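QA checklist item 7 of 12: single-chain prediction sanity check.
[x] sequence parsed
[x] length recorded as 283
[x] structure emitted
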Amino acid sequence: MKKFITTMICAIACAGALQGEDVYAIFNTKAVQDSNLTLDSSGTIDKIHVDVGSVVKKGDELLSLANSDKAAQLQAVKEQYIFAKKQYERYQKSKSVVDKNTLDQYYSNYKKLEADYDYYQSLYNRSILKAPFAGTIAEKKIELGDGVNANNTILFRLVSHEKKILIQFDSKYANIVRPGDVFEFYLGGDGIKRTTTITKIYPTINESTRKVSAEAMIDDSIKPGIFGDGFIKPRADSAESSQNGAQNANANASQNAASNTNNASNANNTNKNAISNIMQGNR
């Protein structure tokens, strides 16, 4: 019991010492979105439209495989589909003089060719790589004429314009740092103090470093990979919350100690009464 109370007092004292203290942290700059792009199709690279450093918008075409056969199939099915659709619509307007079975057959043929057209359109689209989000081409891993395996060959690395910093700080401050706290930092020793606001705290502690990670947004012009350090400024309500938690822990520890003392006293009195009864019985 004494050991438990001593441990609680030490924890409360440490929590009190951390209140109002700036928290030292290191960080690394990352893109909000950072993807290795692949194609859901196999083939040979026929056209490349971008290079390292190219700025692209979402939906821009980056490269395409040799797909002239797919384009021809798509065009043939498209013409059949358009003809079948017009034929059905024409007979639909005069359905009062057309046998119902015949009309149903035209409709079935039109819908089948519609499904075929969608299928060949999908095959053709899968031979073209488009940017999934706006950003900059950070790496190019292929050349014209290279072979591509479906969902296996990495073609480009694309990073978004938006940047964030991944912050790491000692886990002993895990209950003090909160989203919304200000982070003051320096980039690569340039001597310029910058500030941002923490937007996310990771829910786990790194087992090897005993550090907690957090995220914050920064200026889009800062390049991914730049690192630095700084100080987190815990808000007053974070310190107050920690203080209230320490006070509650202190109160609970005191109540537990008092309860245990009463229980020990009651047990002692019970033992005394038992011994007295035994002695009187012996007389």
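[x] summary fact logged: The CA atoms of residues 1 and 261 lie 10 Å apart.
[ ] second reviewer sign-off
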